[in-house]
Amino acid sequence: MKTHFFKVVQTVAQHGSFSEAAAILGCSQSNISYAIKEVEDFFEKRLFIRSRTGCSLTPEGKV
Asked: Where is the HTH lysR-type domain positioned along the sequence (predicted)?
C-alpha cells in the first residue's frame, strides 16, 4: 500500500468530503475514492460512512 494513501484518509477525515480533500490535495475525486478503497480493502474494514452531504469516520476508522 502506498504511504500517501494515509494522507488521503487524514484529509478526508478532517474535511468530511472526498471532493474537498481532492481539491486540497490537487487530484481528482476518483483518485481519492481509489485511495480510500485501497486502504479499506487492505484493512478489511470500512473507514467512512458515506452520505450525500459528506462522510464521517466509522468507529474502525477512528482507530
From this structure: 1-58
Q: What is the DSSP string of 12-55?
A: HHHHT-HHHHHHHHTS-HHHHHHHHHHHHHHHTS--EEEETTEE
Distance CA 27, CA 56 (A): 20
Domain boundaries, the chain: 4-62
Which cell is 57 given? 469516520
Which backbone phi and psi does 52 adopt, to 5 degrees?
-65, -25
Pairwise CA distance, residues 18 & 14, whole Å: 10
Digit-by-digit pLDDT tens for the chain (63 residues) are 788 999 999 999 999 999 999 999 999 999 999 999 999 999 999 999 999 999 999 999 888
